[in-house]
Amino acid sequence: MIKYRVVKNRRNEFTNPITVNKNQKVACIEESDDGDWGGWVLCKTEDNEGWIPHQIIKRQGEKGSILEDYCAIEFNLEVGEVLVMEKELNGWIWCYKEGEPKIKAWAPLNHIEKKTQMIETERLILRPIKPLDFNDYCDMLCDDKVYIWLGNRKRRTPEEVEKLMDYFINHLKERGYGVLGVICKETGKLIGHAGANYIKSLDSIEYLYALNSKEWNKGYATEIGRGYLEYFKNNYDYKKLIALAYPQNQRSVNVLKKLGFVNEGRKEMFENMLDYFELSLERVDNPLT
């Protein structure tokens, strides 16, 4: 579930939007390949005409057959409104306004922007990782007290740190959720990372975190976890998260249990057997609810 905030007012001028059904036959009048309107076909039915995305039309000359149900209804937009996207098509999103999931329509991408992920707790801020975080990130990931519990347990070179940062930045852009930088309010420095990362081999979304060893024993791990997991539960429509930890890393195991994760055995990752945890985001006894 990806949310957008309206940044420009818009009034829908089309009071009679075209509606077509799967397998319906239409006349194709013209096709647009100009700028934001690229990929649209002006179609005519027995009682209406309007623009339809080319992806849902099988054209045969001046005629076409509709491949799926489609309605061109559009929202009126007010600055500050929050839209929840269901799909994106040719510069538009099919969505509903937050709190009104039964009423759906299209909204143009040039009038909205993705809500920036920023989570604030009592002492910390979680926000997208930025290139300016490089030195602080290197300081954490090159600390043997930290990297011994991460991934393949090897010290990362500066080039590998930069590559990991790029991965997390791109993952967030592509999937709408991701791993964020953890910023200490008092110092303004990045002291760790935390968030959700898709693991292809497990076809699951993993919750993960790491902190600079100088910041251990301050209760930050639990504070981060509660803040991020509450945010994730309220903003994304996923049923569960998983987590992985080296069995010897009792600190992380304890934190995960405190956050409500349940040990479901072990999984082989990074040529090691790791403790495997799951957190249901819809359980009645979920501590986040």
Automatic annotation (TrEMBL):
This is GNAT family N-acetyltransferase. It comes from the Bacteria. It comes from Alkaliphilus pronyensis. The lineage of its organism: Bacteria, Bacillati, Bacillota, Clostridia, Peptostreptococcales. PANTHER family: GNAT FAMILY, PUTATIVE (AFU_ORTHOLOGUE AFUA_3G00765)-RELATED-RELATED (PTHR43792), N-ACETYLTRANSFERASE DOMAIN-CONTAINING PROTEIN (PTHR43792:SF1). It holds the Pfam family SH3_2. InterPro entries: Acyl_CoA_acyltransferase (IPR016181), GNAT_dom (IPR000182), N-acetyltransferase (IPR051531), SH3-like_dom_sf (IPR036028), SH3_domain (IPR001452). Residues 124-282 form the N-acetyltransferase domain. PROSITE patterns: GNAT. Keywords: SH3 domain, Transferase.
